[in-house]
Amino acid sequence: MIYGAITNSWREQLPSHTVKELVGTALEKGAKHIELRQTCLGECEEGAGDDWRPNLDELQAVVDAYPSLTFDLAMALPCLTQKIDPQGEMFQAALAGAKLVGGLQPHLRVVDPSPLEGLWNTPKDIPEEALGLAGLATEAASQGVIMSMENSSLPIRNMAMLVEEVRSMVSETAGKSLGLCPDPTNQLRRFPNSDPLAELDSLPLDMIKIVHFKQIVGGESLPSVTDGDLDCRKMRDILDNKGYVGAAIMEIPSDAAVFDNLESSFQYLNS
Description:
Blueprint (H helix, E strand, L loop, with lengths): L1 E5 L12 H10 L4 E5 L7 E2 L6 E2 L1 H10 L4 E7 L12 H14 L4 E5 L16 H4 L1 H10 L3 E5 L5 H12 L4 H6 E4 L2 H7 L5 H6 L9 E3 L2 E2 L2 E2 L10 H11 L4 E4 L7 H13 L1
Parallel strand pairs: 1-2, 1-12, 2-5, 5-6, 6-7, 7-8, 9-12
Antiparallel strand pairs: 3-4, 10-11
Helix pairs in contact: 2-3
């Protein structure tokens, strides 16, 4: 796995530092991949809401400054609860940003933070709005962009059901380019009696495009990846045993000592 960081961990530092500077600090602490998260991109973005756009020139400067790093672009997109136009300006801008930062393997990671009513027991339960993901995945694949969905309001198994259903609706190329960003701790926080690691273990390898590590105790976030309610080393072992070699992001909370916490997270998973 390629251990990395995400820019939404740097909310406390962003007002007084550039993203370019903070990426350099993460690299010094051992990061090999950076997830560039919409709303936490400082000089590399402009606008908000539907008017959000990546600043391609500034993103290019970040990528050029750190040739040893790999990057993906991440954004909140209500694609499970609303129909999103694949040709819309914001989605097209996000694809352009993903292509710019992603090098040979452009990757757009999305999450729908909207609350959803009830779980999906069968594919027939999937709402029409969520099946609109087929159009987004097709458009992304046509531009050579991998698209992954993070689990937020739904468990990993429901997100896998969605990807399987959408894969049946699109071309083989588009289907292979669509997958998940499993975040077992998101699931454990929302569904404390579930077994997110078992659901992670049941995923086919080709569905896992990127993963998030973080830790909680009693539903409260810890500053680094360490012992807690989720067995993060077991998660690491599940991914290793599958042969997963992609990016693994330490999605730790913003903190004055966030870069020390990042380094200790890497050390914990490497031990």
